[in-house]
Design goal:
Blueprint (H helix, E strand, L loop, with lengths): L12 H14 L8 E2 L6 E2 L7 H18 L7
Antiparallel strand pairs: 1-2
Length: 76
């Protein structure tokens, strides 16, 4: 395999939170999330500690997801 990892699967929630915060501090990338995968519809989650930048980034992802389901038979 080549390239940078963009998905980590960790054994516990504590391990995931520690790894997420560690990578957020050490990495030069932009972290966006959490995003719930595997649901019938896209789910975007904003935590109580979200920043304004986080709200803008998640809103942009929600718009792209909404454009992807436009015109489909979606029951809300």
């Amino acid at each position: 395999m080549q390239g940078a990892a963009n998905l980590f699967i960790l054994p516990t929630l504590d391990a995931a939170n520690i790894s997420f915060n560690l990578l957020k501090v050490l990495g030069e990338g932009l972290s966006v999330g959490p995003i719930l995968l595997g649901a019938a519809m896209p789910v975007h989650i904003l935590t109580p500690s979200v920043t304004v930048r986080g709200i803008v980034n998640m809103s942009a992802l929600a718009v792209v997801d909404a454009q992807g389901v436009e015109g489909q038979n979606v029951y809300v």
